[in-house]
Amino acid sequence: MTRAPGLLVQLVDPPPAVEPVRVDVPAFVCVCERGPVDEPVRIGSWPQFGLVFGGFMPNGLGAYAVKAFFDQGGRVCWVVRVVAPEVLTDALAPQPVDRTTSRLGSVAGFVVGAAATVRQGDETHTYLVNAVDPSTSLVTWDRPLHPALDTGLGMDVATGAGQAGARLRGPGGVPGLDVEAASQGVWGDGVELVSSPGARFATVSRTGDVGSRAATPVHATAGLVVGDEVRVSQEGAGTVTVATAVVARVDHVDRVVWWDSLLPAVLDLTLPLALETSSTSLTVLERGSVVEMWPDLSFQPAHPRYAPGVVAASTRIRVVAVGTAAPVPARVRLTGGRDGTAALTVDDLVGDEVLGQRRGAASLAGTDELAVLAVPDLVGCPTPPVVHAPPPPPDPCGPCAVAESVPDRLEAVVVDAGARFETEDVVRAQRALVESCERHTERIVLLDPPCAERPPSLAALRAWAARFSSSYAVAVAPWLTVVDPRAVGRVRRLPASGHLAGMIAQTDALDGPWRTPANRSLTWAHGVDVDFTAEEHAIANEDGILVVRALPGRGLVPMGGRTLSADALWVFLAVRRTMIYLRRALRLHLAWTVFEPNGPQLARTVESAVATLLEQTWEEGGLVGAKAEDAYALQVDQSRAATGHFVLVVGVALARPAEFVTARVSRTDNRLEVAEMPEVVVRAGVAS
């Protein structure tokens, strides 16, 4: 392209600056009261966690770990809820006459301490599994089957996680609306639904304008919309004739209503017709308190307030219209919810990234923001199942009785036992988590010691920690005790990973990832399982165990900052996390270079941007050195530029001025790679 002689000025957008990134965002893979399953959700506050995943529960540690994180100063985390998948089978007829046992088509997935739901027609009842006999496929229940269940007929039986449900019926008992809790869990058994008449609109036909059976002229149309179900009535000779019609079209100019089908012949079109719309309002209660109201719903699919579509925005329920009949006024309680904790396996918590089993921790494979991983329920102590008997019905003749609408039937609520894993299964799962973090290269995993009947000895902790060797693994011990929000005056033992994740976030916010997250007092922590002596602490520290100690006047304080690496170069947690920070910054902010022309201009631009990042890190204390050139060095390798390769060798002094850890940034025609190269030392621009 030719240009006239002279000065040409072009404004070109510069490449994006290399800005700091966050490496303090953890993910908790845990048991929660409610919420989506195996789906990472970003949580920005403790109240938001409560809205999505519910509150504290006896058979899960999710809420406890997340509260500990936010109480230490955590800002953002990811949460993945895990459950045992639902298992469906049938009870073969005829059933044992004792009614306390059932012969199932298969007992796979049924475990002692789990809740199971038995359904037969409209009857739904939940029982606790007391025994399982695989040889005879017999399951023993905690109480006899309900008298309404016919043991001479087949029944559907389900265990694992399940959603509570109920059915609202229309006039004459016809099915109207099937209701389910928004997610699995026994929390749904505390949900009630009240159906009541909604707003009404009434008008009359115009006697001076005779319509047809397909359309009716009326005095007013302002309250009518397509899909409205209208009660059409007519008085005559001491009787009232009633028909039902659905609005197909409304002409607001001529005030004419068109019907989706012809009006019946019993209506005399020469006489006045009374038109009245009807709607249904649904009120959702949880534990007796109103939490949602959905007014003026219709059950006609064409209506703009069609119930399933409108209620889809609910955080508590999901509804499916069985027909077009509106439910009659009623109050029902959802039943059949199951937590699915007793049958949990370590595979439910860990999944398998390699095989594509996106469950538990494996569902986080695509979450780039994640930098810390914790799975507290992997080591949780088992909790017993609980059966809450239904409250007795109120005495209508009592002197203090209050007339109120109550659900027709109340069922027992069964809470699953907590998950329990063998120590070898826990270690196998923890190794899988460590390997996952090593593959991703930008995450660390916080490992808690397995639960034991009594606090573990130092020898037991050392034996457990010795089974891992990785700079991406941090062992946190001992367990902590906290005041349990579920009961006044009661404490609960917790693994310390939630507290340490919060301490990491607090330290990063104040100082940066190059500062060890230790030597600060923990909040919402009131005791330790084991109070190590100074000598025991020294031994544990040498083994890479981060010990939480009770210090006079300071409370509980993490006193350690090592990884479980056998390589002296990576033994310190701050070194590993600083390198993760630099790797992530380079990867994210040099991605623009992939298709740039590979020449001197690219080399100068990249070198300048990376130098800015490293100098800022050095000024903030992340790199060691009296001068910037002592803290980092850069070298561009263009020896393979002809084949599309651009290599930048970055050396940084993470621990001591005399020692460098080296990163190699490689760019091909379509990919950017950042690799650690501890064997290469860069000094004054020379690699050796």
From TrEMBL:
UniProt family annotation: Belongs to the myoviridae tail sheath protein family.
Location of the Tail sheath protein C-terminal domain: 566-665
Stored InterPro entries: Phage_sheath_subtilisin, Tail_sheath_C, Tail_sheath_structural
Pfam families membership: Phage_sheath_1, Phage_sheath_1C
Domain Tail sheath protein subtilisin-like, residue spans: 465-563
Organism: Rhodococcus opacus RKJ300 = JCM 13270
Protein name: Phage tail sheath protein
